[in-house]
Amino acid sequence: MIRMLFLLFLLIGVAFSLQPAANAEEEIVVKPGDSIQKAIAQVPEGSTILVKKGQYNGSLLIEKSVQLIGEEGAIIAGDGSGNVIEVKAPNVIIENFIIEKSGKRGTDAGIWVESSNNLIKDNVFKEIYYGIYIQKGRFNRIIDNQITGYDGHFSQKGNGVHLFYAEETELTGNVIRQVQDGIYFDFAKDSTVKGNKVEGSRYGYHVMYAKKGLLNDNISTKNITGVMIMDAEDFDITDNVINENLDYRGHGILIFDSDRINIINNRVTFNNTGLSLQDARDCKIESNVFAGNYIGLDLKDKNERNTMINNNFIGNIVQTKIFTSVEPMDLNGQGNYWDDYSGMDLNGDGIGEIPYESGKLFDKLVEENPMLQFFFESPTIKLWSSIEKIFPAFSGEKGMDRYPYTQPVQYEADKTGLDAERNWLAGLIGIVMVSLGITIFYRGRVL
Questions:
Q1: Within-domain flag for 137
Q2: Which of 229, 246, 237 is nearest to 267 (CA)?
Q3: Domain count within the chain
Q4: 81: domain CATH number?
Q5: DSSP letters of 2-34?
Q6: Which of 103, 117, 281, 369 qualifies as a FRET site for 272, CA 20 to 30 Å off?
Q7: What is the pLDDT of residue 395?
Q8: Full-prediction pTM beyond 0.90?
Q9: Rounded Cα gap, residues 431 and 382, in angstroms
């Protein structure tokens, strides 16, 4: 009897296993003329919707976990009001679409998200107010998108990517142009931003009231300010290229009223102001290049317990602009290279014998009369600088670097590049010499 019951239950189980599951994941295809919204409504959770090339008008509301994958040339076009796509469910994928024509008010966006664990990848956003707006979601990934805002002044635009109370968001490989701020961290936490580029906007990367984040290997160019850090804590700004942010109001990097911001191994070049510290505390500034800026270093308000070592300040018209008391920022006998330092290294340890002095009278005069910058590095100004060293009362505030280097700092990447160049040159010379030897040997035998 027991055996009969066992066989009966086994047969029933096999029969049920052969029936199609009511909620099985599906893969369906949407063609021009079909409705993507109807497809989303009809498919079960976890399904994949493949959207063929063509234009699909109207906004979308996604309230279930689906994968929305576009064929090359698939366009989702809003009607110029509200969000183009609104995501309220978690575990949604939106990939390979052209997304355009959002509204122009409030937080209208190409994609507006209020859920977690979503992937937005390989999309092109055009004519949008905000590109992607994340509201309080976690573990969202935004990868390899191109975002371009509406035409017009930045004050009439939203941001490329806005993270509002978002946590553990990953942004990688995105290119953002012509928006208000490229990536805005608004009370965001634990953000990771790598390999992105922001161009032609107000602020490239705007960190406001945010905590714990990483900006690594990004580019910020031709904006008003490259990186703006305000009222933030515990951010690492590493290995970025920040250049040509030349607006007279702008900066390469500005740190305002923030704590524990690490600025390491960045290239900050050809900006109006390279680095500005304003009420910065416990920050570490190390192994950066500040070159070709109008002002290399700007210190305002009260900056406390910051360290600045192994940086190169080269070719800045005004090396430092300091109108506040300065505490030493060198550390353990390590300082920085300032190309306008003319002190001597008497014992050959690579460190000048007298501290680097900032806030020169010439710098203040240039601030008052910008036309004087044309005399930068002229013999007259060099003589003036020498007189200031003899009569220091002529100078402004003293510098913060007691261990100035007499030669530029060589970084590992520079050394690697130099070694590669030397190896290439040596190889070329070797090939030429071998060829010449063979030619001489051959001609000698013929003669």
A1: yes
A2: 237
A3: 1
A4: 2.160.20.10
A5: HHHHHHHHHHHHHHHHHSPPTT---EEEE-TTS
A6: 281
A7: 47
A8: no
A9: 47
